[in-house]
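Good day; I would like, with your permission, to put a structural problem before you. What I wish to show you is a protein chain and, alongside it, a tokenised description of its three-dimensional fold. I would ask you to consider whether the tokens describe a fold that such a sequence might reasonably adopt. You will find the record immediately after this paragraph:
***
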Amino acid sequence: MTDPAFPEEPFSAPTPIELAATPLTVVRYEGIGLEGLPAAFDEGFPALGNLVGSGALDPTGPALAMYHGDPDGIFDLEVGFPVATALAGPLPAGDVSVVGSQLPAGPALATTHVGTYDGLGAAWADLTAQAAASPSGVWIEVYVTDPSEAPEALRTDLILPVKA
């Protein structure tokens, strides 16, 4: 069975889904803002990539970022991958610590943005405007395509967990 957070095909429109508590392996950043994203991504994803390359980490899906809190203000960030089993304890990876986490189980609204990352803000605004329920304070971006692909072809699935 396919995890509803990681479909093969893009979401055709805002789509209600039921998230499973999928285990994740992540690098966690606390109390950052939008200006801190480039540094967090540039540090976290290469560290995770080194673990994948060494065989210490075996992702079961695409890279993702999970924002906790106000994405326009100060928030906590997790960057990582879904895995079959979350880590039992921290795993050092260069200058960062990789830890276990999970997607929040429950109702969510999902859509797909195709294009540059610069368009994600507008895509989030559209998704949030169409949510019938209140956002839960967690915002998930799933980076389905490799960032080295042509910017206009990048696929990012946006998942907005909502209060039941």
About this structure: The domain at 16-161 is CATH 3.20.80.10 (Multidrug-efflux Transporter 1 Regulator Bmrr; Chain A). The radius of gyration is 15 Å.
